[in-house]
Description:
The chain is mostly helical. Helix content is 57%, strand content 3%. The protein has helices at residues 25-30, 43-47, 57-61, 66-93, 106-119, 129-134, 152-164, 168-194, 197-208, 211-216, 223-251, 264-269, 276-289, 295-317, 322-348, 351-355, 379-396, 448-467, 471-484, 504-519, 526-555, 561-566, and strands at residues 418-425, 438-444, 559-560.
Amino acid sequence: MAWMSQSSQTVTDAPQEQAAGEPPAWEQRLRRFGYAPRRGAGLRERLVPPHPEPGAKLWQYFGLSPAAAGRLARWSAWGGPLLVALLAGVLRFVNLGSPDAVIFDETYYAKDAWSLLEHGYETEWPDNANDRIVAGETPEAEGAAYVVHPPGGKWVIALGEWLFGLTPFGWRFMVAVLGTLSVLMLCRIGRRLLRSTVLGCLAGLLMAVDGLHFVMSRTALLDLVLMFWLLAAFGCLLIDRDAARARLAAALPVGRDGLLRPDVAVGERLGLGLRPWRIAAGVCLGLAAATKWNALYVLAAFGILTVLWDAAARRTAGAPRAYPAMLRRDAVPAFVSMVPVALGAYLASWSGWFATSGGYYRDWAEEAGADSSFSWLPGPLRSLWHYTSEVYSFHVELTSEHNYESNPWTWLATTRPVTYFYSSREPGEGGCEHASGCAREVLALGTPLLWWSACFALVYAGYRWLFRRDWRAGAVLCAVAAGYLPWFLYQERTIFYFYAVILVPFLCLAVAMMIGAILGPPGCSERRRVAGIVGAGVLVLLIAWNFIYFYPIYTGMEIPLDGWRARMWLGTWV
């Protein structure tokens, strides 16, 4: 994907967006709180931050010739992300079919996906279906099923079942593929956002070793699919941002000194033309909503974010009234590019339900009592609207207690993970040779040191956004807020920690930004640089060790019961 472009500087070296001339009012106010603006960047650099050439010194330290080191440095733009993605893929695909069982909510989505393949809509299954499926049978459908999530994510799972059958490997295959690709995307997105190959690859590496992302990549649930499409939409909007600002820069006049000059006419009246990457973001957000409805909050947040980026670009280009200019020129095209496109993608995910007649509520509009106030709409659309309203009522009224439910206040602290699978044996039972007994578990738990580090990283991102006016920190915080804060509106609802997997890529970006600050700004002393490298290296190694330590309870490996107990760091994890 095209959000993958050249770069190699630390996070603290990005130019800040600011208007030419006198400092704006917000800057003068923030100076009282310690804000120190960075000066010296030209208008072109503020509009389109350059992508520095990758350095070759690191490779020369290993004895390579300057020519070979230069080639490797150039290849690192793709080579680094691909290597990180390869590591993530190996971790996710090794023993993907284990446990050989239908675990946790796979009991819904794996079977629903197979029903979509066979019938075009979800069906009921007999009570003993799970055991029969694991034994190699395929039970017959028993009529249309009432399901409470759109079919988009289940079609993704169905693709793996179409390739490999109704088996644990088959229904987990495509989720593992998307989990691996999301690591590659994050490397490239981080590279574009932070203008650093190292930090972009670091963000991807952190996600590769996050326990929650890892477990969700190996389980046929919908939330990993949702995360993939939301991350893809974020990347598309980043590309669109760069392209729009490059168009503005190309239209600005050039002074005698060869530097760009701000221009009111360009800043306020230049049309930015067709923006295919924003349309692509709309498609991705529609597919996200076709997986789970909470994507609608992210659609709204990303829509606001992209037009605010346009306003900032127009102000930098010379518009004295940037927000009115944005509203005149950009707001409506942004809405059309994203909302109707997302709606079209959402409706397309229901194609199997539309194309058949047996789906739940499929013929509701033709039956007696159907609402005639929207009779101008085709019957299938009225039926889908009724189905949607019924499902919405189910979601907001879901308050039944569950052993593993958790309040969103606790998510970042990882205090209540979810057990997807657990089995234990007594000493001597079934070949168990450990004196304490044997245990197997698949626990949806984020790598604790990574998540606890992310709490500090979010605070740092807030500082960067508020006091340094760093748009990148604001973008990360916007994505986290859009995926996280809406859950606080439904605290009476039954909610689970694994919903937070959609936050993982943005938490990793925040940690990468913080590590960039730890490494030190360009031009710092050698002692400061060494201290930063040591500190950052220790943090990353501790996070990697933490993942390795918990690996057995992420994958369902059989370990001594004492070893399992040792890994239950908090009483609420049991």
